[in-house]
Amino acid sequence: SSSSSSSSSSSSSGVQKSVRYVYHQNSINRRRQNATRKMIVGRAASSSATMQKNPDGFEQIDLFSPSKINLFLRIVRRREDGYHDLASLFHVIDLGDEMSFAKSSSETKDTLVCEDTSIPLDDSNLVIKALNLFRQKTGIKQYFWVELKKTVPSGAGLGGGSGNAATALYAANKLCGDVATEEELLEWSGDIGSDISVFFSTGAAYCTGRGEIVEDVEPPLPLTTKMCLVKPSIGLSTPTIFKALDLNKRSTADPLDLLKSLNTDGCTYDNAINDLERPAFSKLPELGELKDKLIDATKDEGAIVFMSGSGSTIVLLGTDTVPKFAMDDEDLFKSKARLISRKKGEWFVPSKV
């Protein structure tokens, strides 16, 4: 039940909104590999991407790279291959990174530039894995230059790295002339990660399997819903949390009932269920304490407080006012956020809130 469709706007406005991509065979000057070079980066408010000349005179595409939250997350079973089948309502949000892409003159490797020294720049980064995957699936030998400006914290349960990988697949495809469909990009992305596929939805997705089986659904909540995110400085490793999961202590709620409840009742404590909270709090008791403090501090505002993914981000849905105790704690990451969606053929842009 796809919520996406072709735009019903007039052809003239469609032309205004469309992004015209002009491709040149010029090679990228090797000076681009200097990590300190400053880019001129811009993004049109009405468009999901801009194609422009960078200071070196070559074509560059600039994209917003979003993250996600899980409005509910049920672990269905442990599979024979050691992975877990899940059923979850993923929603893309506008906390994100900035990414710039261009074709590279190198015939042997991609170049990833990031000022955040904690980010690996080699083949262990999902961005490079995504570009390797694109070449493998399309047979195109093109390598790329990528600049990544990080905002989304890692180990947060927000899928920031997965969003980077999806954005890289989308950008590589655009730079090479839309050689693959979005459906193909979605299908391929499951080869390198479970959460990447959700970013090829239109924003709200009911995901099953390892998370790579994606069904577009209508956003169950208004995109104007207030939200803020709070994360301690310590992150959580997804494999560690799954290893600590006691299958006998999971929720027994039917995921489809949770989805129905979200649509009819909005977000409530009855449907904002995350089976990974218990193992996460067992590994990081202070995270459970943080959740309790956030619940207590926002109860007058009617906020629903829950953990996203495998943690360690706590979502406050229904308020974008960060409680004073959290604002005063410099060790906590804090951010307002909004749910976002997109039209097929376009990419995500931040909300205007």
Overall number of strands = 11
- Shape descriptor reads globular
Helix content class = 10-25%
> Over the alpha carbons, how many angstroms does the gyration radius reach?
20 Å
- Major sheet: 7 strands, mixed
Q: Roughly what fraction of the amino acids lie in strands?
A: 15-25%
Number of helices: 9
Could you explain how this protein is built, in words?
- With 353 residues, this protein is an alpha+beta fold.
- It has nine helices and eleven strands.
- The protein has helices spanning 11-17, 126-138, 160-175, 182-189, 238-243, 255-265, 277-283, 285-298, 324-327, and strands spanning 50-53, 59-78, 84-103, 111-114, 144-149, 204-208, 213-216, 227-231, 304-307, 314-317, 333-337.
- Strands 1, 2, 3, 4, 5, 6 and 7 form a seven-stranded mixed beta sheet that branches. The chain has a four-stranded antiparallel beta sheet with strand order 9-10-8-11, covered by helices on one side.
- Helix 2 links the parallel strand 4 (111-114) and strand 5 (144-149).
- Helix 2 packs parallel to helix 3 (160-175), helix 3 (160-175) packs across helix 4 and helix 7 packs across helix 8.
- The protein is globular.
- Mean pLDDT is 86; it is low at 1-47.
